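User: For my dataset I need records formatted as: sequence, then structure tokens, nothing else. Please produce one.
Assistant:
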Amino acid sequence: MTRTSPGVKRIAAILDFLADHPTQSFALTDLVRALKLSRATAHALLTGLVEVGYLYRTTDKTYVLGPALARVGRAAAQNMSPLQVAQPEMRALADEFDVVCSAFFLEGDTIVSRERAASISHVGYSLPLGTRIRLMPRSLPTFFAWDADEARARMDRAETPVTPAAREQIEAAMAFMREHGFGVMMRTDDPGRNPDSLEAFGGEADRPVAILGAITGDETYVVSAIVAPVFNAQGRIEFVLSLMGFSRAMTGTQVFAAAGSLLAACKRIGAFIG
């Protein structure tokens, strides 16, 4: 593994420290003490950062973030898209598990497909980007596991009444997602047929898919989708990543392994957003 230069780490430490205290300015002595740097090292780094405009040295010989760094920050904020960070993660997941990895956003009562990456086996995947899918009760755990009251309110006002059995299944699935961080939708029809690109989030109530409230390691599942949320800086779900198109039945152990890779990717994307 390539090691990060100590100089880079020290520069990052200085900038991070000042960014964490944006309304304050600090003298050389303050930064030496706070960051545990030698006086000579700190002085050299601060002088260099002032020269390139990343720091500004005030008249009382203290330091604050400089105009050049502010310009870089504005450019990053204006052009940052979480999907730019998500794309390589999605590509890696699609290739690793030979599936389609899609990013779904929730807009009101509509699920929207915004990005996808397909493995070589799924180059003919038929769900166009921008497809809008009506949110069904079975998809509520995917977007509202961490807001169960909202999920229940949506069940109460569903066009087609949600049966007590379906409510119990949805509650179990929400509890599973809160505990494990991901959800699993399972096909309940012929496991030999080709996967339907809309089956996981499709707008038809009779699509043969169930969202699971429990998974056993040695049990076998015909998985329609494994889903996990990407949280933003406010702790709300920004969008959901979904792995779809598994070509064979999976054991519970295999499901947890695939979900582990998906969760790790979602956390990396969320960390960037945050």
